[in-house]
Amino acid sequence: MVVATQETHSLFLSTLTELCSPSSILPYPTALIFDVYGAHFIFPQAKEIVGPKIPTFMHVTQGASAMYTFFVPTEKYGFSDWEKTVERIYSDESLRAGRDRAQIIEAVALAKNGTDKLNGTVLRVPGVKEMYDYEREGYNIPMPPGVLSQMAVMANLADETDGIIISSSYAIEGPVLEACKEFKKVYPVGIQIAPFGWEKGAVIQDEKIRGYLDKQKENSVLYISFGSHFFPINTPDYIDALLTTLSDLDFPFIFALGGYMAANGLPAETISRINSSGKSFIHNGWIDQRGILQHPSTGWFLTHAGWNSISESLAQGVPLICWPMSHGDQFMNAALLSTRDEPLAFELLQIRMNEARGPPRRGGGPIKGDLEDVKKEMRDVLTKANGAEGAVLRKNAENLAVELREERYGRADVVIRELAEI
């Protein structure tokens, strides 16, 4: 097999040409695997080099519930047929409204409902409770240019490759994986984390963090991290509300500020005040996340709902509190975990911004983003986490961790062996 990623397009094509030359002493490729981001741009050249008989795959490191949109057409609440929608709008002067094709593509990629607007279309993704289209979107951080057009290209790559290799698990989202089979050959290889991410009892090298956790009660600490690329920089008052609520509830926490957006996410005075209290700990830098999730004192993980963080947490049986903040998979991941038959997470709804605000189909009051509503919801969720409802979610997460280990050496291993034999 030969793997193409966005960062290695030129090298990939030159290597592929060398492999396929008559003078090559290396074995001819048996399959091509394309990274989900940007690889569609070299797909035609690669296929021309190897010929039509070599199978091609798209590799996805997100969950199937979020990717379902890219695999299915409009009538199934997806946008794999987005080009038809773009052409219909672009060819009608009144619908085009002075926009060029690129602008229409971005609007269609945002809506993902067969139109160029979020209009309250009800979405039905197997295994996830129904939601309105705007509940799947939104961003609490500046959106990088080109993200929406990139989503359209991802849909094209999914359509044109022979199969999808996806880092997903039947234990987490079996219904949607089954539904995907109607449209595409899908290879769920299980959640993908480093081998030591499956272990227990890892020794945390940072003495301050280890010393803090060792002093706390079992399952009592909330671990907070928004990952490598995210932080709610547009809503610092929401972060203040979180820290104040945790203090009021005497809820111990570790807050990791390792991502590039998080580096200056909190004032130095706030970090000093919280750390000097001895009740909680803020680490202004990278942190041993897997070690923290394996520590018996860690009871919850407040996360942006990225698939890697979710996978690492669930492998350890740690339930989550989701604060999604970016286009892509985060909002759907949060909905999946919080609305599945055996929920694994609480989802913060009032923190949503921009397109994601509005009445939630899942019930509850409208999402307005008022600071008082944010504070009320945070207190409610954090109180539930230490109550009977939280205990149910913890048990669900612990049971799932066992299933994930069984799948790793069972069903997922069978899929990986199937791919290895291609």
From TrEMBL:
The keyword Transmembrane helix does not apply. Pfam families: UDPGT. InterPro entries: UDP-glycosyltransf_plant, UDP_glucos_trans. This is Glycosyltransferase family 1 protein. It comes from Hyaloscypha variabilis (strain UAMH 11265 / GT02V1 / F). GO terms for molecular function: UDP-glucosyltransferase activity. The keyword Transferase applies. PANTHER family: GLYCOSYLTRANSFERASE. CDD domains: GT1_Gtf-like. Keywords: Transferase. SUPFAM superfamilies: UDP-Glycosyltransferase/glycogen phosphorylase. It comes from the Eukaryota.
